[in-house]
Amino acid sequence: MNRPISRISPISASTRRPHLWPRAAVALATVGILSVSGLPQLQGTADAATKAMPCEQMFKLKGKPTDPGKLPWANGDAARPEADWDSYGFPNQRQAMDGLTLPDDPAARDKILGKLTLPYKKYAEGTPERVYATYKDYLSRNGNADTKYGGFGNWLNEAYIEVYGRNPRGEAFHGKVVKDLGLIGPDWICEETVTVTDPDTGKPYTRRFDAVNHKTKEVVEIKSGGNHDSSQAPKDRAFLKDPKYKDYKLRYAFGQQQSQDTARYTESLKKLGGAGRVTTYEHVSTPEAQFKPGKYTAQDTARSIGRSPDVIRQSPPNPADMKRQMDRIRAADPEGLRVRGPGGVDFSSLELRYVGKPVKGQGLNYSFSANKVDESSGLGYGGKERAELISDSFFTWLALTPEKFWVNLNPDEPDRVMDKTFGTTDAGRVLLQADLEMKHDYAKDMDPRTGIGKQLFAKLAAENIPCTHGVRNWIVPKPAEVREQDGGLYILDAPLKVNSVPQDFKTPQPNGSCDLTEAQHKRVQELMDTMIVPDIEKKVNTDAKYADLRTVYNARVAAEWIRQQDAKSPTDYHAIINSNKVTDWPLRGKNASWTPTQTYKDYVKSFTEGDYSYPCEKAGPPRHLRGGRRRLLQVAQGERHSGQVHRRAQEPAAYHRHLREGDDGRRGEQGAPRPRRQHRRPHRDRHGRQPDPHPDPDPHRRRLLHSPGHPGPRPLRPGRSPAGAPGDQHASGGLANTGTQIATIAGVAALLVGAGTTLVWLRRRRNGLG
User: Fold this and answer.
1) How are the residues of the chain apportioned to helix, strand and coil, as percentages rounded to the nearest 5?
2) Terminal alpha carbon distance of the chain
3) How far apart, in whole angstroms, are the C-alpha atoms of residue 280 and residue 526?
4) Which of 66, 298, 503, 546 could pair with 182 in a Cys bridge, judged by C-beta atoms 3.0 to 4.6 Å apart?
């Protein structure tokens, strides 16, 4: 079963590019606000205590043991309820060095490393010299080349920091399971070694189990991650086959959801052992490295709870690098000690879902959500890029005044594509690109040969309507559902809507003219609205190619709310809001050279030349027919014509998104308030989340609605072009509609209401990657 994951992190309010992204969302196996609940009372260490002893003695626990019949695995496989997921601490001071860098240039790198001598242990732990010397030692043993990790950063995170923390993490989780499940009393012995013999081969093995109870005849193997130790597989099989242990049961307790490979392994043990002898239990908990931040600690790590920044920072930029990383990690971890890393997160689903109350001098809390996947999916790449998009968009919505939030793809208006400043940001790029993508999808749906288009034209032909008029499509937000609780805002749902109205354009296109009566115009639009538009709207809200758009919109909703809080009392982001300075959040990476003109040219090419073609028959000379604005139905009407029909990207949807104004924030050291739980019901929304079983009839739940004075888009009659002035209001609510600008949103504070109780995204998902 897939689950959503989320985390709380700090956001810097600096006028420099804030590091919103790093400690972003992914708590791997946990959702919601996690408590860093180190286990100070668990002083023993399983590693040091290699000889068996009572578990309560090993971990210095007192209390009453749990009735065996009430242990979670008593009735078979089990998983910890999401409401109980939490975190635990373990010591790893090396985490404080995760901000250390080394130049990629070999000459510059060697200049730094050349000053150090081996052995590396002569340098003090916790110093950059110790880290660099250790890396130098690694290079010296590998021909002075890092072909395994591909660079210092990967080595630092995967080898120097993560491996060092494995044993402490495993010991801490061992103690946590013992404590949480009450595996105490004289009958529970930890770290007991048993001798088993495989009756098929006669080969003896020694197998040390994390906990053994000879009275109830149970042995427990505890793993802080979701993986098994492949070296223990023959021993476990021998244990299940050994006649002297035929009445014993093997219990596996995992700290995370089992990987697919481990699930297959435990299933094979169940078949071997017979009915009820092998069970698995997922005691989902997130490990939290405990360390004292220092000079070389990454900013996001120093100010955050949890290991989310590690996951995002370690996320490779592309699928090929992701595969190399996972192969490398698996090879270095045959014992299954590693917790889930970037490979277990689908970063394409990363979204901002919570912002806390901004406090002057402290910033605010925030939380991302993302879908968890099995590491074999290969979807753990692109985390840094995705998080940067969220961060940059968030600050863009703060910095720019709302009249700049518009984009416009109209072949008749090459000089009014989008605001110049907005066009230098990734938020603006995403809006314009999504508009073009939506037009392409609309054109595909209008294809008379297949699917919805075929059904549409069959209806038109049956009603003797010879063609279709031009249309203008754009995307607007539906009401966004939010909850304001304990001073923070939870974004529960932020769906988008596609609007469509008739419209003609001056730019020539070779589809020919087609005159329709007023009644025919109305009927054509009615059929498009009921057959084509819903499918496009579904794609905009669910298709992966619109994920950036949904992400940018969520950031906009959050930013608007923070902006409102700043209006009440100045926050750390006061100087950013309405400054119209976005140079700190420019176009990045592969999109750094993008310009609005590029997208506009792509659109015009599609508009005038078509996206694809197909044979068409009609009496008379050959003729090129282009899809999009007018769809000729000669074939359906029995007329013959040899030629091609070219279908273009859907007419200018002057797609102008009205994003709500907002703010960003940085979270403080403390976690945000955890929302109170409510019951579930089977229905799930587009995100796979379950809504409240009892919808609130009162203002405990509020929605982002159309702004006062802005009733929404006006339909345009055939032949009427959109209003030329950028300030013309063709918009609803908070997301900028394509094609026009939005004036400052008035009275929007009244649209966001407080005192909610449920964070819907914490619900478990049954479908998708979550």
Assistant:
1) 35, 15, 50
2) 8
3) 55
4) 66
